Amino acid sequence: MRELLRTGRATIELVQGDCLEVLPTLPEGSIDVVVTSPPYNLGIDYASYDDRQSREQYLEWTRRWTKAVARVLAPKGSFFLNVAGKPSDPWGPLEVAQVCRESFTLQNTIYWVKSIAVEVDEATLSVGHYKPINSRRYLNDCVELVLHLTHEGKVELDRLAIGVEYADKSNVTRWRSAGADRHCRGNAWFVPYSTIQSRDKDRPHPASYPPALAAQAIRLHGVERAQRTLDPFSGIGSTALACAELGVDHLGIELDALYHAEAVRRVRGVTSPSLFARR
Predict the structure, then answer these.
(1) Choosing a second label site near 206 at 20 to 30 A (CA), which of 67, 86, 179, 258?
(2) According to the model, what pLDDT value does residue 127 have?
(3) For the domain 2-277, what is the CATH code?
């Protein structure tokens, strides 16, 4: 099943199917940016996919789809791969990274911070969302990895597109790189989930990421250079939503019919720019 949607300046193509069958049909080097989050093999209850493979099976499957992505990624393209483990099995993301090393260069390691507690003026400020862990051995898991993979590690980025203002404004005139009061955000990205009332109604997927995370990755690569983007594990369309509102053409591939239908519904609901899409 294939849906072709127009949202403002973007053409969003959503395909229901197996990415290992769809990716070989794409021209070589035809994708500028890939943003995705595959199943982590943590035993999550997806509607269709079996998330309980042996480690060997899972890594071999990872090898197959990452090589397929490498073929379609443009020479100066960026591949942002969100991957996570669990406290009792922390090696999973590192083993996935080693598989990716067969086809890509790791250019940047980004830490997606979902929740954080910081000391501010002698008070503790806790913001974001986390799932409490009932354990005396493990800490609550508040961070996931986003691996920025490229062919040769030489892709130039639009770092100030996601830059932040200087807290000390004297730096604006002190540093030549200060520009229009912006400096590099760095590789720790605080992107919390939006508050929802009902998982089944508002976010009917067991392992989605916020559209804002995908938007930030695409803006870092450079919106002007992102002619076509890809998410081979589209889920309920987080990357598609980001692309719709950034005005970037996108192809999303999703195995499950229910998640695919929800992605189509969500993209059709895009009518105006959101905060995460603003330059």
Answers:
(1) 67
(2) 86
(3) 3.40.50.150
